[in-house]
Structure formats: structure tokens, C-alpha cells
Inverse folding.
């Protein structure tokens, strides 16, 4: 009505001019089409041609399509701005080019539908050609836009019966679609990457361009792996591997087998990952492919580290790093530093700073998966040293990066680790949220699902359920040869058995894993020996308890404060069992203070209980009063944690009464 002059602005209000009775289209599309039809011939023609370019377009491209002189085109564009069909952007994506956008997408769509298909095909091709000529060697940076226009050109050419043109145009569409897919994958725009790779695969199949079809399949598999769609990724990798086997291309065979290994490593199933990685190495060692070989060496190093083969892991990592440095491959050098830090962590529990170099390289290169992995490694190293504030900060950083990059496997791992650390630091409500969030998405990384269920059962006071869940976690870790998680679940399971009073089960299990981890040269015996000492004391075997304490003392140089606190507690309990009460009080007080310093309140409360029991073994009312204060302090901690089972246990005990 405004365009037709039936509705006018006058003195700050709208007035009806003349006969207001007029036909109004039934749909918004009809209204927009009617507005376009009322434009002057040159204005309408310009708007329709602009619609081919997309919602956003450049004046130079429109001039190329229409053949209009710059002055004439500028005048028409100004009119379309005034009539509210277009808006000029403040900043253009192309330097020296005025950039415009349609006021509403529906205007662009309506204008586009008014153009004949044959004209659309011609103009899509013309714009793609202009953009290639304008950008030259920068064309890949606009791959998605070029892919769209060449695809539209190819599709419309086929629809209007110009098959000869389709044959010429489709390879260009395929080239830019693959480029757009890879660009989207690099910035973790996973949904866009999937669409582009699928389009490229289908187009390559139609063109019988097998090499491009396999490239699209491999790219699609990479994105699926990033999204934890392991079965889809593995199926596509196998299809690519079959093709490369038929072609006899051993380098590409090795590359795909390495990626198949990664799909198993992604779910921490190192037993199945190893043969694929080993096969890749065997194929590459006879080829002139040093960059690929360096990458697979480092992949093998990480896998060997997680299975506890530290000597082999160090050799592979060292060789891979040497090759990466020789070839000036900074991303691979960063990965090698990450693996070497992991090896050091699994052996000694640290130091956290060993991960710093790999984090710096990863963030410098925007290698988000590697940065996430290194931040999580640094977090674990801080945690086992009792540096929980730093551990939580590193985990939060990993979570942020995982969310930003939509990396589901690493997001799942980071949520689990956050929940585990929150259990240790007494943030049980937050831990419950983190662990539940992990379980919701555990299909992305199910390795820690039973760990999470066990920890949730523990904070809810159901030790029986916690033990059963951890037994399943142990079985999975053994089956996968995941030595890093095996240490975690063995430690929790031993602790749960002790709390449940199942001393013989705890003794047998801890003895087996102490021998295994000692043989591998890992740090876990520093934690397990004091736990085994507590079990032995509870069973009345003071000689075995003393030996466990002695063995634990040999790990003091590692500076693992939670393990040191455990040892202080075990020594205190051993003194108490031998009636050396003053020595017991000293050691137990040291354990309480250390747990308080590092922020591990549940274990602090258990130590306070043990200290109270030691005071009760002394004569005099002062000892009873001290014990009562300690038990009150322990109860306060349990209340703050929400450990209702522990509160009831203390309230029902004869000591508190």
C-alpha cells in the first residue's frame, strides 16, 4: 500500500490516500512479489540479477552480471536502498568492493524465483567466474560460496537439459565442495563439514572420480570420529582402505590404518588399536614418507604409553620428535611433547609443566584437539600431586575448548575428569551434575561410564553398587589394555572394599595391582601401598602393614601429596595398633593437616575419626573431650559434603553418644 501510494506518512502519522480499496495478496510471498513487480523495469531487473548472487553481494559482481555502467548501477542501487529492498554493509568482505544485503531473505527468494532457470544457471556461472578472477589465489578462502554457485550451475544446467555444460561444470563444483568441507572441518563446523563431504562424495560418484570420492569418504570419516560416531567412521575408513589396497598405494593404506587405529584409541581400546598402528608403521618404513612415518611413530608412542610399555613409548616418541624437528613439522613436534609428558606423568605423576610446551604449540596452531588432550593431561598431573585448584582450572579450560569445537569425545572425557576431581575436593553436588552430564553423552566416550556410576553410587552412600560398577570398569580396562584407567579404578575399588569391610578382597586385589604397577614402573604403588597397609591393619596383619608402609616410603621423592597423606594415616594407624599412641597422634595429625591443606575433605574427615579413636585409647577426661571435638569436626565435614550415611554412622556410634 505504501509502494502504491495508498498509505502515506503525514505529520507523524499514517493517512489513507484516495480509494483504499485494493487487492492484497494472500501470502507474504505474494506481497513481496507484488512489491517487486511495482518497481521500475531497470530496478526490477537489477534486483532479480542480484538475487542470483545470494542474500549478500558485491556491487562489482552485479556490474559484471548486468553489464551496467558503474554510475547507472550506483543510481539503481541507491533507489533500491531508499525503497528498503537492500541495505549497504558497513564493512565489505572484499577490499574495494561495496557490499549489499537484501533487507529480508524472503525478498531475495521471491526475486530469485522470478528468474527463469536458464538465466539463473548462466548467472551462477558468471558470478563464480567473476569471483575466481577477482580472488585468484585467494579463491579457496571463499570455497563454500564458490561451491554453492558451481553446484547451482551444475544442477540447473541438468534441469534445463544442458548436459554438455554439466560435464564441464561439475568437476569445478566437486573441487570447491571438497575445499569447503575441509575448511569447515578445520574450524570444527562439523555439521557443515558432513553436508559438504556427503555432497562431494555423491558428486564424485556420479562423475566416477574415484580419488575424490575416497578423499570425501576419508574426510567424512574424520568428522564422524571427531563426533564419536565410531561405527560410521570405522565403516568409511574400511571402504577407503579397500580402495587403497586395490590401487596398491601403501602410503595411503598406512594413513587410513592409522586412522582406524585412532577410532579404537578414541574409545581407549588400545588392544585393538595396536595392530592397525603397527601395520601402518610396517608399510611406511619402506616408503619415502617421513612426515607420515613421524605421525604414526608418535601415535604408536601414545598407545604404548597407555598400555604401560614405557620404554617402547619413549623410543617411538623420541624418533617421531626427531623426524618432526628435521622436517620442521611443528604440529607433530607438539604432539610428541604431549606424549613425552604423558609418559612422565604415568611413571611419576608429573610434573604438570611437562605439558606446557605441547599446550603452547597446540594453541599457537589452533590445534584444538591436541590442546584439550594436553590440558587434561596437565589437570591429571596436578590432581595426583594434590594441586586441585590448578587441576580444576586446567579441566575447565579443556571443557571450554571441547565445547567451542564441538568435540564430543573430549568433552565427555573432560566432564568425567571434572566430576572425579569434584568428588575428591568435596564438591559432591557439582560432581553429581558433572558425572550425570558425562553419562548422558557417554556414547561418545564410554570408557569411564562405570567409573562414573561407581563414583555416583559412592557419594550416594551405596558402596555395594559402587564396588559392582568399579568391577565392570576394571574388566573393561583390562580388556582394552588401558593401564591409565586401570590405576584409577583399582585405587577406588580397593578403597570401597576397605570401607565395606571386605578386607580379603581388598588385600588380594591390591597385591595384584601393586605387583603389576611396580613392574611397569608406574607411580600407582605410592597410592596403593598405604591403602594395602590400612587393609592389613584392619585384618590384624601388622607385619604386612609395616612392609607396605616401608615400600610406600620409597615413593616420597615423587611429591604426590595425597599419597603422602595416606602414608601418614597408615603409619598412624600402625602405631595405634602397636599402642604407640603419641606417635600415632603425631602421624594422624600430619595426615589430617595435609588433607586439609590440599583440600580433600572426605579423607580429612576419615583421618579425624581415626585420630579421635586414638585419643580414646588414652586415659583421662581430656582425651575424651579431644575425641569428641574431632568427631564433631568430622561430622561437620560430612554434613557439608552431603555424606548422610557417614553422618548417621557417627550419630549412631557409642562414641558420639
Amino acid at each position: 500500500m505504501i509502494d502504491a501510494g495508498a498509505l502515506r506518512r503525514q505529520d507523524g502519522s499514517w493517512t489513507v490516500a484516495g480509494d483504499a480499496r485494493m487487492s492484497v495478496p494472500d501470502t507474504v510471498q505474494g506481497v513481496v512479489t507484488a512489491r517487486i513487480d511495482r518497481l521500475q523495469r531497470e530496478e526490477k531487473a537489477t534486483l532479480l540479477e542480484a538475487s542470483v548472487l545470494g542474500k549478500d553481494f558485491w556491487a562489482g559482481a552485479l556490474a559484471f552480471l548486468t553489464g551496467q555502467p558503474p554510475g547507472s548501477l550506483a543510481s539503481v542501487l541507491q533507489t533500491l536502498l531508499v525503497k528498503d529492498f537492500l541495505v549497504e554493509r558497513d564493512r565489505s568482505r572484499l577490499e574495494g568492493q561495496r557490499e549489499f544485503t537484501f533487507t529480508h531473505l524472503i525478498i531475495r527468494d521471491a526475486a530469485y524465483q522470478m528468474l527463469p532457470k536458464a538465466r539463473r544457471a548462466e548467472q551462477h556461472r558468471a558470478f563464480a567466474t567473476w569471483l575466481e578472477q577477482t580472488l585468484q589465489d585467494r579463491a579457496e578462502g571463499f570455497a563454500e560460496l564458490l561451491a554453492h554457485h558451481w553446484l547451482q550451475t551444475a544442477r540447473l544446467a541438468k534441469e534445463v537439459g544442458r548436459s554438455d555444460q554439466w560435464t564441464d561444470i561439475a568437476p569445478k563444483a566437486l573441487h570447491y565442495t571438497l575445499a569447503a568441507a575441509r575448511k569447515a572441518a578445520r574450524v570444527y563446523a562439523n555439521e557443515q563439514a558432513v553436508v559438504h563431504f556427503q555432497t562431494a562424495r555423491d558428486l564424485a560418484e556420479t562423475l566416477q572420480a574415484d580419488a575424490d570420492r575416497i578423499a570425501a569418504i576419508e574426510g567424512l570419516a574424520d568428522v564422524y570420529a571427531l563426533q564419536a560416531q565410531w561405527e560410521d567412521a570405522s565403516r568409511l575408513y574400511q571402504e577407503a582402505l579397500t580402495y587403497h589396497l586395490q590401487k596398491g598405494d601403501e602410503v595411503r593404506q598406512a594413513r587410513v590404518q592409522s586412522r582406524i587405529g585412532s577410532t579404537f584409541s578414541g574409545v581407549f581400546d588400545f588392544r585393538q588399536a595396536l595392530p592397525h598402528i603397527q601395520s601402518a608403521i610396517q608399510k611406511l618404513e619402506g616408503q619415502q614418507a617421513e612426515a607420515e612415518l613421524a605421525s604414526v611413530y608418535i601415535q604408536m608412542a601414545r598407545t604404548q604409553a597407555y598400555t604401560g610399555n614405557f620404554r617402547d613409548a619413549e623410543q617411538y616418541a623420541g624418533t617421531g620428535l626427531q623426524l618432526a624437528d628435521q622436517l620442521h613439522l611443528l604440529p607433530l613436534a607438539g604432539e610428541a611433547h604431549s606424549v613425552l609428558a604423558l609418559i612422565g606423568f604415568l611413571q611419576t605423576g608429573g610434573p604438570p609443566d611437562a605439558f606446557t610446551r605441547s599446550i603452547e604449540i597446540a594453541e599457537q596452531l589452533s590445534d584444538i584437539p591436541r590442546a584439550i588432550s594436553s590440558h587434561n593431561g596437565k589437570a591429571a598431573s596436578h590432581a595426583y600431586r594434590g594441586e586441585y585448584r590448578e587441576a580444576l582450572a586446567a579441566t575447565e579450560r579443556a571443557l571450554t575448548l571441547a565445547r567451542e569445537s564441538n568435540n564430543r569425545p573430549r568433552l565427555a572425557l573432560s566432564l568425567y575428569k571434572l566430576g572425579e576431581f569434584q568428588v575428591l575436593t568435596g564438591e559432591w553436588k557439582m560432581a553429581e551434575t558433572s558425572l550425570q552430564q558425562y553419562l548422558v553423552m557417554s556414547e561418545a566416550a564410554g570408557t569411564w561410564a562405570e567409573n562414573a556410576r561407581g563414583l555416583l553410587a559412592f557419594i550416594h552412600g551405596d558402596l555395594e553398587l559402587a564396588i559392582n560398577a568399579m568391577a565392570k570398569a576394571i574388566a573393561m580396562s583390562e580388556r582394552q589394555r588401558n593401564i591409565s584407567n586401570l590405576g584409577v579404578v583399582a585405587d577406588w575399588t580397593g578403597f570401597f572394599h576397605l570401607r565395606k569391610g571386605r578386607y580379603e578382597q581388598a588385600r588380594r586385589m591390591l597385591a595384584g595391582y601393586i605387583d603389576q604397577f611396580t613392574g611397569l614402573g608406574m607411580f600407582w604403588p605410592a597410592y596403593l601401598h598405604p591403602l594395602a597397609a590400612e587393609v592389613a591393619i584392619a585384618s590384624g596383619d601388622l607385619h604386612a602393614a609395616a612392609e607396605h608402609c616401608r615400600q610406600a616410603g620409597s615413593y616420597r621423592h615423587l611429591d604426590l601429596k595425597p599419597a603422602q597423606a595416606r602414608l601418614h594415616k597408615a603409619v598412624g594407624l600402625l602405631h595405634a595398633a602397636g599402642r604407640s599412641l603419641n606417635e600415632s597422634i603425631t602421624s594422624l595429625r600430619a595426615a589430617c593437616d595435609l588433607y586439609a591443606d590440599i583440600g580433600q575433605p572426605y579423607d580429612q574427615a576419615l583421618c579425624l575419626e581415626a585420630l579421635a579413636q586414638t585419643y580414646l585409647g588414652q586415659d583421662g577426661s581430656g582425651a575424651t573431650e579431644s575425641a569428641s571435638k574431632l568427631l564433631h569436626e568430622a561430622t561437620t565435614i560430612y554434613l557439608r559434603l552431603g555424606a548422610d550415611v557417614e553422618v548417621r554412622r557417627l550419630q549412631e556410634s557409642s562414641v558420639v553418644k
About this structure: Residues 49 and 119 are 9 Å apart (CA to CA).
